Amino acid sequence: MNKNQTIAIALIVIIVVGAAGVYLLMFPPGPGVPTIVMGTTDSVESSLDMAQSYDYFGWEMIQALSSGLVDIEPGSEAGADDIIPALALSWAVSDGGKIWDFTLRQNVTFPDGREFNATDVKYTFDRNCNLTGVGLYEEDGPQLNMDYGGVIKNVTILSEFVVRFNLHIAFAPFLQLMSCQASYMVDRAVAPMDELVGYDTEAQTPAALGPYLLQEWVRIGGSDDHITLVKNPNYWDAASGYPKTDRIIVKMYASNTALASAMTAGEIDIAYRQLTAEQINAFKADANVHVWEGIGAQIQYLCFQQDVYPYNETEVRQAIASGINRTHIAEAVFLGQVDELYSIIPQGMAFANTAFDKWNYNISRVVELLAPFGYNNVTKLKLNLTYESSGHYPQSAQQALVYQQDWENTGVIDVTLSALDWPSYRLARNAGTMDVFLYGWYPDFIDPDNYGFLPFASWLNMGYNETYPQGGIDQAALWNQGRSAPNATARGWAYEDLQNLQADECSVIPLWQSSTVAVTSLAVKGVVLDITVNWRHWLVYLEEPTT
């Protein structure tokens, strides 16, 4: 498709009454502006409020609509040397890593013309951490789930454009934490200190200062239909030529089949999340499209509800782990497009090991481990596996069938499969009503700290059963040692012990990790797929046709 037509029409100004007064949204007109259409099977899980949003797609929208103090250099390995300025021009660390001072960029304005300053940074963190860590929404939200309260003691204003973060611990990946979307700025003109901003509110999102503004977010029958982003004329990095496309329309499709058909028919410029391996291979053979592939840190893992017998028994979880044939999954479902995973920390990331390889597929060991619990080829373990069915994760139904086949091939496990769409799946997770279920993880920030906590994450509601096999040292203690260690060597020791303990306990079972794939028309340029798994809308553009 080539929608790269330009019509010079004045901006439309929409006036909204916000929480702190008049709020002006300036949108380019509808038809005629340079536009890219992206298709996806994904959707917004809850909201586009940084104090609540904790899903991949919600974060990608927030990244397009707001900015953080720092960013990750696109295409880099996302290490400490790859942190680049965003709303902060520079930073300094003192007190052994427990004080961070950020000098802010000046002449950055919100949509209502107000200048961004240190008060906005303090307001953002005070609000978001209060809403999710202490206040009305304490059971959910990224700041709670990522333990902002365990890292950040408080935020203080040193001057109009200098802000200080006082930390509880010398948190090794602090800059990476500041680069993630949960640390992006809110607009206090529309973001109350004690309330979330969501789909049903007037502003729909508190995000601002990003390359795009939210023009519309449309749901039909409770499901996302499309989201339209339009160029922010006051974007702080506009002088660099960003965003490169004036308008982005993101269309949601009910299935990967519909998404692939839309791409083939030229109805969309980009297909991103979740095409099947077969569809990706077919597009690779299609000279009319381009398939982009990049390293990724996406993982999937198996969770147990450990408040339910027999999943509270470590040996039962170990037996189930031994009944998983990762090679079968990688080849039969994903056609070799994913890698087998043997630690909750993905391979290629610092300090990762392969501790779970002790539970490679082994039918004899499954039989041996289950026998003391009375399970055999007559009295089989009844395993109820739930998977997500609406395209939030790739090929979940096919995965479930392969897991079922391999477990039942042991002769001592009988599997029942259940499917839930993503909204229902999330509610069931919160309620702790799924015995065994598949879950995925995309990095909040690139550091083992952001993966090492998953086997005991409270928000997974697994009734985590700590068995203390290492002299009473639990997973949380080792995780805390790793995140606050004074040097890389000490971090490595802590994460080595943590991964070994996680393999002993099997509270979750790592399954596979995958790269990132997008299919586009040949005219689409500027796609960057790297280990952050971030989709950067503002870099993407349509190449002008040659004449």
Structural overview:
- Strands 3, 10, 11, 12, 13, 14, 15, 16, 17, 18 and 19 form an eleven-stranded mixed sheet that branches. The chain has a four-stranded antiparallel sheet with strand order 6-7-9-8. The chain has a two-stranded antiparallel ribbon with strand order 1-2.
- By secondary structure, the chain is α+β, with helices and mostly antiparallel strands.
- The chain folds into two domains: 12-252, Periplasmic binding protein-like II (D-Maltodextrin-Binding Protein, domain 2, 3-Layer(aba) Sandwich), CATH 3.40.190; 297-515, Dipeptide-binding Protein, domain 3 (Roll).
- It has helices at 56-65, 118-134, 142-145, 148-151, 174-179, 256-264, 277-284, 314-322, 326-333, 363-370, 396-408, 422-431, 449-452, 475-484, 488-505; strands at 12-18, 21-27, 35-40, 70-72, 83-85, 88-94, 99-104, 152-159, 162-167, 212-220, 223-231, 247-252, 270-271, 289-304, 338-340, 381-388, 413-420, 436-441, 508-521, 524-525, 541-542.
- The protein has 15 helices and 21 strands.
- Helix content is 25%, strand content 25%.
- Strand 1 and strand 2 (21-27) form a beta hairpin.
